[in-house]
Amino acid sequence: MNWQENILLCSESQPGITATSLSFNPINWQQLCFVGESSVTIWHIERIKDEHHLKRNPVELPDEQGSISPHEDLFFPVSRSDDPYHGPDLPVSAIAGLVGDEAETFVPRNSIKTFVHPTAYCWTATSEIYMGCKEGYILAIDADKHSVSILQPKPPPEYMQKISDVVSYVRREVQKKKGGKLNDLQKPIFSMAFCNEGLYAAGRDGILLFYHIKDLQYEMKVCADISQPISSLIFSPDYASLLLATDQGPVYSYKPAHSGEAVKLLDTCSSCFLAADFLTPGNKYCVSVTVAGEVQVWLLEDGTCLGKLNLDTEATAMACCPSSNSVAVGTRRGQIYFLDVTKAEAPRVVHRIFLSDFPVLSLHYDQSGQFLIARTTEGHVFILDARPSKLFQVLGYIVLADEVLDLSVVSDFKNDLVEVMVLLNVAEVQRARLEIFCLSSAITTDNDKCVNDQGMFNASVLKNKQYELDYPLRSAVKLKDNIVYGYCTCAPFICKYHLSEENMSEDPPVFSSEQRIPSNQFGSGFLCVSPNSQWLAAAAKDGVLFIYNTSTMDILAQKHCHSYQGGGIRSVTFSMDGNFILVNDANDGALVCLKWKKIKKTEVEEATFYWQSLLDTLNKSISDENVVLKSMAEWQFDPGSTSKSLAEEKFKEASLKSPGVDGTEEDGNVTNTNDMTWIGQKIQKVIREETQRFANQKEELQTGIKKLRKTIQKMMHENEQVPDIEKLEHQEFNLDMEEQEKLQAEAEQEVARARKEIEMENLANCYLQDFIKYECWDAMCVKGCAVKCFHMDCEVKNYPLQERSKEELETLGKVLRLKDSETADLKVQKEDLEAEAETEEEGEKEAKAVADDGESFCLIGSLSSQYGGDTSILYHQRDLHTKEQRVNQIVLLKIKAEKFLTQEEKEKAEMLAKLEMEKRLAATDDDRLRALDDMMGGVLEVRKEDILKMEIPPPPFISKPEDLWNDEEKRLFGEYERKVKELNEEKEEYKQTLENEWKKLEASIQETTRNFDETVCKLSERKVKSDMVIYQEELKIVNLTCDLLLDEELDTREAGLYNCLTKKKKEKVKKAKTILTAKNKVDAYTATYKDAVDEEKNLERRFPKQFADIPDDLFDELFQLYSSRPKNPRTEILLDTANPYGNCSDSEDYKDALTLLMKAMDELDSPEHMPEGLEQSTWEKFCQARRNKMESEELVKWKALKLAEMQAFFQRRTDENEKMKSQIENIFKELTWLQEKKMKLQQNLIVQFVLKQGQVELKSTEIPDYSDAILIKKSVVEELNSSILTQGEKKIAAIIEFKEFSRGIRQLEWEHKKMRMQIEDLKEKARDIVILPISKDCQLFLTVLNYDSHIAQHIAGMEETLRFMDKLHKKNVKNHQKKIGELKKCIRLKEEANYELSLQLKEMLVSVSERRNIFEAADTRDISEKITRQRYQEILKQKNLRDLIKEQKEEFESLQSELEILRARRPPHI
């Protein structure tokens, strides 16, 4: 941007990058450093004539560990491997499936690096950049090469190294003992400044450091410590002082030459303004407070800050008292500070009140200055006496049910009342609620009757009234005539309400708005009314202030005071006379004071009258209260203390010192009330009074409780001694049933909560169980089951199958239909081929059939056909070339296999099923079984196993003593014993029989289970083979899936390359346009430059002619003066040797440079430099000529610089265009390679073979290279051989036919030659006809019907011929020039060859002389002469041949030239 002329030179967008800093290179304005959160970009501003272009050069920053790795292009990898099985190695973007611009910038998650975060940087005198990082590194960036280096601390000497190691060790040990973390010596740098001596840097620790940098090492020195975070460092223009700006506001100065401490220059607060108000009487001073708690007093006339005071606490509200020069400031900790501002230059704190633990949200004075209303959170509103004479007494407080949004105060001087209107936020309804209560002077005179013991006002004193409005409001103000204005929350308009007593039929009454005034503001806003209630101010977040007339609601004025980005307007205050308005923003730190420019005279008079009447009322109070205020001592406070902690410590001390009080009781005694809240003091006072009032009863209760405790403990001890059945539970000794019930209720709640959590967890587990059961069991059409062996660890599981979905069945049906159609088509083609090949032998057909049977499972790639799989519907592995075929093959491989049964097995299965059905039918008819059970107890005979149940009943006399038995009884007893013995013998015999049968059954069971186990083992072996077949099919599916994925990746890569190619082509078109435009501009400017050079030379040549009439000695002296130039024509600058950047005025244009040069020429043009004897007019003429010459030279220099810059721009664009061409060529090569790979992968299929073990044997351990091998069928080779034989026979027949046909060709050639000779004769005859003396014009006139049009066509043809000849002539000239250039080049080469031959000749002469001497010595002269003569004859013969060739060539050229002349003379035939 040219800010002087407000012209945009160039621009570039960087979407998605947040800029943190931007600066120009002080040495070269055409370099720009753009710093983001974790990126750095060097922008080069290139220009060609009046056009400017931005070129982006990103800088690769190191990662967080400080390692610098070269940039890796993931879209165009440098190296790649080509696996014949897995395919080529493709970029990760193609594997991820990305095609568009994301493919070029995609980085995998494991390759993403977190770079360092720049915090501060500065330019050096060598166009380098020193940059500090958040991680503690210091970087050196070369702005020309865009490279990064990390500066390292210079290692100290050996003796210093030992000392530093000891100090570091001691520091670490001390830090460990303190329990803190080890601090890094290298801390982040957040500000930098460069000078000739080195680099100054600072951070958040407030320490100013100096770095002496040499190469890539530095030495660090601590210069100053200001103990405040330093935000920026700036050198003065003479580089003698360094300015240190802090975040908190103070500004320090440091002089590097003196190496002293930093001196504070300015102590200001950097916090934003919170509120502002006018100091009584409101026409001279105003007071402001910042969020940080700094109070400032300003002069309204010129905005001078007269005094300030820092409270060192966070402020939340501020207001000025109308009845005195006191100011109240509320804080976030619930305190109110009262300031004495009777001396504007020295404000001071005179009192502080600690209201509550809640923050003070707003402070409001009534217009009489009698009450101070403080609004806090939780709906608390405190009423204070605003007069210093009453020591700012807290009168009481009220608690509102809802959140307070706004508060408005209206004074009624006639009735001595103050109405307070509170706007409440009612969450239940979308309406606003107003609560109005009145304050009378009675609450100050007789305060004890108005409040209860805890300081809360009685409801009868305040006379509360509630109103509900029809719209939700954000802010509301009340006027004296029951008029309320509210700023709506839901829509931007202002509502007007009239709170009349007539409409109060409901409780609370709902009022509708009488008028709605649309607002042109946006965002949440608020209202403020002037003291005389005639002006209403509306402000919002947009920063625009509107002033309305309260009677008509017309807009009197509007002013854009603050910006929306700064948070808009925070507060607005009118002065008491209405002449001034104070407006402050939320975040921009500006306080605006407005004054009326244009206003009605009546309104000014009304405001002035109201102000004067109010001052008359308050004058006496102001003077009296200011006297009291001045006499108050300054309040001393400790900003670091916390009241809460002090109160707790005092409470603990009091509880420990009180003697007759048990440690478990709470009496709440706090001796020091200075650090307690006002509410806390009231509560403490109530507790203390109640404690004193009921001290005797308390003591009696404590004594009774102690006795009762002893009694219960005794009863519990007795309870432990009684039996368990008589013991009582421990909770039965609990006398506090309420507490017990409370604890039980809490326990039940905890149990209910735990039960609910467990139920929810169980519910989640049940859901997970049902989901797993559905997925793994219910959804299976074939349930999972297993067969286990009895005597070995062997188990065979079946294959659970899930029912196919409707979509899968439709896809399968579609694929099967497609395969059937393809099979039918293939069958028709085979039938056609078989019909053509019926001549083949029958043995070959049988061999092919045998080969096809042999390859049934070998080439299919699995044994599925032997285990019930139908392979007839599958594609052959060699035919899977397209994507659709592979997808269909995967679908066909997933078909459910059915067991194959022979005809006998089918009949046997049907018979077994029929017998099973009969058994089931017989089992259902149970009439026979029921009759047998009814008649004979379910048995037809007594079974042997019933013997074991039989018992011989003993005789009845067995109970009598044996001595009393008679003979009959003895006989019966003998029979009894005999029967018992026989029965026992039968039992033993039956037991033996049962044991034998049991052993037989056991052996049978063992054999049966052993046979079952063998069957299961065989089944297991078959299961293993079936698993093998399944794995073979799955391997096929995996291979096909890999092929599909690779095909998809190749398609994705191809689409990505085409997208990149399209972008590159568009960029190339743009660059080509830029290059063409630049070339045209360079050519045009080159002509301008040459004209300027010629003009400059012409001026020098015209100089002797202009002064030819002066003597020669004067001319020579003038010519010397003509060549003299001023020594320093540039801008005079201060000799700032400390400025590292020097004079950086490289951007001076031609006009400025020429103006400076002409100013420097004034000294040379002075008459004192005029030669003696020269006239003044001649001198003036000479000075003008010299000025013209210097102006021309300066113009030539300036144009030369511009031309060099334009040529450099053109060359850079040309290089970029060549680079772009190279990139496009590389993309084309990549696409070609990719297409070749796709074709190769489509033909190079993965075929799965099933080979028998030991069938493939290798003689050596090395595996042969099958990279160039192909797989074909044996029949293909046999068919190829037969086709070769057939083609050979055909070729022999064709040769014979060709031999017969060649004879006819020769005859036709003879006839053709004959006809050609006839054509030549006819041409000769036509030539004779043409030579006849009849002119052509006569022939045309006689033969042509339309002679004029023919002549016009002839002329047009001649013109066309002439243009053609001109073009041909230019072409010939160009060719001749080219030949001349080639001849010159040949001449140059011949000259070089001649020179080399001359050198060789010298050597050969020496060699010849040596050979001559040898020859004479050897006496072989006769043989030599013969050879010489032969050689001479050959040379003569070659010379004659060259001459003959040269003559023939000249003759041929002359004939050719004559032929061209004849062709040129003869007009072309139309």
How would you summarize this macromolecular structure in one to three sentences?
The protein is built from 24 helices and 51 strands. It is an alpha+beta fold.
Count all strands and give the number.
51
- Oligomer kind: single chain
Strand content: 15-25%
Radius of gyration over C-alpha positions, nearest whole angstrom: 58 Å
Shape assignment: flat
Low-pLDDT residue intervals, each spanning 5 or more residues: 177-185, 639-671, 839-855, 938-942, 1129-1136
How much helix is in the residues? 40-55%
Number of helices: 24
Q: Determine the mean pLDDT.
A: 81
N-to-C CA distance: 66 Å
Judged by helices, strands and strand pairing, the structural class is alpha+beta
User: Main beta sheet: strand number and arrangement?
Assistant: 5 strands, mixed
The spatial strand order of the largest sheet comes to 11-15-14-13-12
Summarize the structure in words.
This protein has 1470 residues and is an alpha+beta fold. The chain has 24 helices and 51 strands. The strands form 14 sheets. A five-stranded mixed sheet has the order 11-15-14-13-12, with no helix packed on it. Strands 32-33-34-35-39 form a five-stranded mixed sheet. A hairpin with a 4-residue loop joins strand 9 (138-142) and strand 10. Helix 19 (1150-1164) runs antiparallel to helix 20 (1176-1243). It is flat. It starts with 18 loop residues before the first strand and ends in a 5-residue tail after the last helix.
